[in-house]
Amino acid sequence: QRRTNVKKVFVVLCCFVGIAISVGAQGPISGHPRDAAAGVPARLQRLEDLEAVRAIPACYGYGHDLIFKHLGADQTEAIAALQRCHVNALTTRVFLFDETAATTTLHSIRDLVGFIESFARDHGYSSARNVPGNVQVELIGPTTARVQSSTVAPHFLTLGSKSPATDFVEARYVSDVVRGSDGVWRAVECDL
Q: Is the bond leading into 154 cis (omega within 30 degrees of zero)?
């Protein structure tokens, strides 16, 4: 009986503590007016947008690595991965060794996949790991952003006279990004 009463008191005490914490959380934070809570949804949306845009370089890196996984074969898996963070009609300007003039412009995810496969074949690469870093995000408007990143990606040579070896390919990416009607952020243009 006594043990049951102690449990009941403990439960009631926990309820009061929970209510106090909840009421306290709704009160003004030092230095912030009481109505500042009205801006919380907008701040949360901004954080969600920043995180979604920041994830695009990693999504590209994952798709890039899948291209190497399926070199010369069906690239459905890589294309599906890239479609999560790029529009199908992605415009990609490729800059090699000179950032003032693009050497080629690609007009779709399939073109990008073909370019990367060709680049791998021409250089004897059979595998790569593209892990982006130094990611910088600028939200330009409610549905537009720009994300910049860089990578030093190991590309593994297992084909040809230079194998086995590893090349470290340095790249800088600048992507213009939009939020689609489905709410998903995707790159529409990319400088590589």
A: no
Backbone angles phi, psi at 173, to 5 degrees: -115, 135
Encode pLDDT of 130-155 as tens digits: 999 999 999 999 999 999 999 999 99
Q: What is the pTM for the complete model shown?
A: 0.77
Judge contact between 93 and 112, C-beta under 8 A.
no
Beta strands in the chain (DSSP E): 86-94, 104-106, 125-128, 133-139, 144-157, 165-179, 185-191
Cβ(27)–Cβ(46) under 8 Å? no
Cα separations (Å) of 137 from 37, 45, 52, 105, 180?
A: 25, 15, 10, 24, 18
- DSSP character for 131? -
